[in-house]
Write a structure and sequence with these properties.
Length: about 650
């Protein structure tokens, strides 16, 4: 019996999900908030619709994402909902007419419907990022269908599974994660309202909020504490956001209902009590605290968020910016023993980037921007297979492993859902602004329309293949303001020119270079960020290390020997195979690298204009984001040269 329950616990943990769905950042959607951010902010976000990506790898990812998300028929995304309510459109109720979604969207999966929520967010984000009407139409048709289902269910409840799953959670009997799944819907409907102005979406989500209030208000404290042991994603963040939009304090009460004392209280005491907890159940609870601080100025929430972020980045994060082994925390003093085939759940990085966007608004701290860049390039950008647009669940760090991609029809994991969103919103953290000026945080080809100042900033760059970026100002009339150029911690001796004239740079790496002047139409800033090779070893084993070039983790190509079809894709015939994946790593795989620790540039030569490096013993290394469809080595067994 004991063994059996252990297995059950393991399976439950394995199937525990990642949270995602969009957030609201200070400065965004200002006309739509009854409760504004009152906490003091260093900088504010731009609305996503004010930033456009120009051709680049990021834009390529976005386009592939857009093709996949538009290819999924609306009636397929609504089918499980209609099935739950017993209402069907046309002949949909006949078993011949709708091709059912597989994987985590199967009709017998307790998380069904979560992808519909993610896509409500992703269509909204893609509409804001591109302005293309197709995404508005896709979102509108989903919302209309969901409103019909909600009306049929009768009491405001809306889901692809019966309310009995919520009752099981309240009773404390076994159920996967019903509030986690509802969170996707709450968040997706809120995003449809905020990004596409779909008022029906707001009506549907407030009815859902009313249902939740009526359902949870009568419960006693013991019941509350028991039910929130189960993963609930970021549903409390959504309730804070619904409170901000409507001003209705019942939704604030709901957000506070999900305050998880056992998890948040230690953070309030500045204690790292993460132990072996499920990483991505944890992060969204802190995101809710971040929103609480922004709306109420509760300094306790701010302090614990700040402590948690630094604890994560300083102790629980691998070189590519990802965290977790088999989805859980582990002793950071044993990091080198956790370089497994199951590290780096992508939803965790997705959520850490969300938390970073909040923290950056509060602090304007260059360290936050440094982390953001590292995780964005090394994890999120490389999550998507450039050949098929499919995405990976983990970022495995085991030497000789490879990325394992989803399938188009039979995966729909949490990381597929958060992936739909991630690749739709690259524009949201490139620039920030405040009364003094505009911050250029990322070197991604793009254009930002700073409406309040009447300025457009146009950024051209081939970074990271080249070390330069150029910004051109477009304005009808001269404007005096400051442009804050990020000075990344990985660079030194940065050179800046304005209209061809050198600007003296006194700042140090890990800060911002402020250029204040009266800007005229056509003014041009050019910045050069020298990139260097650096070795980063694990905290517990100086013989294990990874190489970085600027912010980029380099990985060694290790070929395809021993890979068995359908690798590198997940096998739909197996149950969540990413979690127990057998990589069939060849025994003779070389994982060693001869390196001059002080001067890694003596051991590695960049070849040509591409970011390809050759080690003296013959290994070929390139950016991890660029390694697909083959094995790789990220953390090497180092041999002193
Ligand atoms: Zn996930």
């Amino acid at each position: 019996m004991r063994n059996k329950s252990l297995i059950l616990i393991t399976i439950c943990a394995a199937l525990s999900t990642g949270l995602s769905a969009q957030s609201i950042y200070p400065g965004q959607h200002t006309g739509k908030m009854k409760k504004m951010t009152t906490a003091p902010m260093q900088v504010e976000s731009f609305d996503l619709k004010d930033v456009r990506l120009l051709p680049s790898r990021f834009r390529d990812n976005m386009m592939r994402d857009s093709i996949w998300m538009t290819s999924i028929a609306t009636n397929r995304l609504l089918h499980s909902f209609r099935n739950n309510a017993g209402v069907f459109a046309g002949r949909e109720g006949g078993y011949m007419t709708v091709k059912k979604l597989g994987g985590w969207e199967s009709l017998d999966c307790e998380l069904r419907g979560h992808t519909t929520g993610h896509l409500l967010s992703a269509y909204a984000l893609m509409y804001a990022s591109t302005g293309s009407e197709i995404f508005k139409l896709k979102g509108d048709s989903l919302v209309t269908g969901l409103a019909e289902v909600q009306a049929a269910l009768g009491n405001g409840y809306l889901s692809a599974y019966p309310e009995e799953l919520i009752n099981r959670n309240i009773r404390g009997t076994s159920v996967w994660a019903p509030w986690y799944t509802l969170h996707k819907l709450f968040s997706g409907l809120i995003d449809q309202y905020l990004y596409t102005d779909n008022k029906q979406a707001l009506e549907v989500v407030t009815r859902m909020g009313d249902w939740a209030y009526n359902k949870l208000k009568p419960l006693d404290e013991a019941t509350r504490k028991r039910m929130i042991q189960n993963e609930f994603g970021g549903v409390n963040e959504s309730f804070y956001n619904l409170y901000a939009i409507t001003g209705d304090e019942r939704y604030q009460w709901l957000a506070e209902f999900f305050y998880h004392n056992d998890v948040i209280d230690p953070l309030k005491e500045q204690r790292d009590d993460l132990g072996t907890k499920h990483t991505n159940t944890f992060i969204p609870k802190v995101l809710a605290e971040a929103r609480n601080y922004e709306l109420t100025q509760d300094n306790g929430s701010r302090k614990l968020t700040d402590f948690f972020w630094h604890t994560m980045i300083d102790h629980h994060t691998f070189a590519p910016g990802c965290s977790s082994d088999k989805e859980h925390y582990f002793d950071p003093q044993q990091l080198s023993k956790h370089l497994t085939g199951y590290t780096g759940e992508t939803c965790c990085t997705y959520n850490m980037l969300k938390l970073s966007r909040h923290l950056f608004c509060w602090t304007g701290d260059a360290k936050v921007a440094d982390y953001y860049e590292r995780a964005l390039y090394n994890h999120i950008l490389g999550q998507q297979d450039p050949e098929t647009g499919m995405v990976s669940y983990f970022l495995p760090l085991l030497s000789g492993s490879h990325k394992v991609y989803s399938t188009q029809e039979n995966s729909f994991w949490c990381c597929v859902g958060s992936g739909f969103e991630s690749h739709a919103k690259y524009g949201e953290a490139i620039y920030y602004h405040n009364d003094q000026g505009i911050y250029v945080n990322l070197f991604i080809p793009s254009e930002v329309n700073w409406r309040a100042k009447g300025i457009t900033l146009h950024q051209e760059t081939s970074f990271p293949a080249e070390e330069n970026t150029a910004l051109t100002i477009q304005t009808d009339k001269p404007v005096t303001t400051t442009i804050y150029l990020r000075y990344p911690s990985w660079s030194k001796n940065v050179k800046v020119n304005v209209n061809g004239k050198k600007v003296s740079v006194k700042q140090k790496p890990g800060s911002y270079i402020a250029v204040t002047r009266q800007w005229k139409d056509g003014d041009r800033i050019e910045a050069n960020y020298p990139m260097n090779l650096q070795l980063e070893t694990t905290p517990d084993n100086p013989q294990k290390g990874t190489l970085l070039y600027g912010p980029l983790v380099l990985a060694g190509e290790a070929g395809t020997e021993g890979m068995q079809a359908p690798a590198p894709f997940s096998d739909p015939a197996l149950y969540n195979d990413y979690y127990t994946y057998n990589y069939h790593i060849p025994a003779e795989l070389n994982t060693t690298l001869q390196i001059n620790r002080k001067h890694p540039e003596h051991s590695l030569q960049r070849t040509g204009k591409e970011l390809i490096f050759k080690a003296s013993q013959g290994n070929v290394l390139k950016p991890l984001y660029d390694l697909h469809h083959q094995r790789y080595v990220i953390y090497w067994d180092l041999i002193e040269k």
